[in-house]
Fold:
Amino acid sequence: IFEDVVPAIRKWREAGMKVYIYSSGSVEAQKLLFGYSTEGDILELFDGHFDTKIGPKVESESYRRIAASIGCATNNILFLTDVPREANAAEEADTHVAVVIRPGNAGLTDDEKSYYSLISSFTELFLPSST
Structure:
């Protein structure tokens, strides 16, 4: 887990935001990963977990199913990914998307770099203004 992740998620949760994981890994694997992370047990930071039982990450219907299951409109969701095909599917479902650039991730094409919102740290994501 990158060092910016846990502090950012804590800040989001303090602001009343909900955080969910949608991974190609099983829910059970997610719980093991986040239960025994380098930051300790951080499972309490997440409101829920989704895996490909909800649908493939490259299909827009999967994001609609997640939104329905958490009782949230798709346009009130931000999906973070490092995979452009997943970003495209989420966007097709009217979900906001940011592509995360981290060491070891596959490179993006110039078109992908210019099209998607890119972040390299969770600290680049700002909370909505309360005004």
User: Anything to note?
Assistant: Residues 5-124 form a domain with the Rossmann fold fold (CATH 3.40.50.1000). The beta strands are 20-22, 48-50, 78-81, 96-100, 118-119. The chain has a mean pLDDT of 94. The chain has one domain: 5-124.
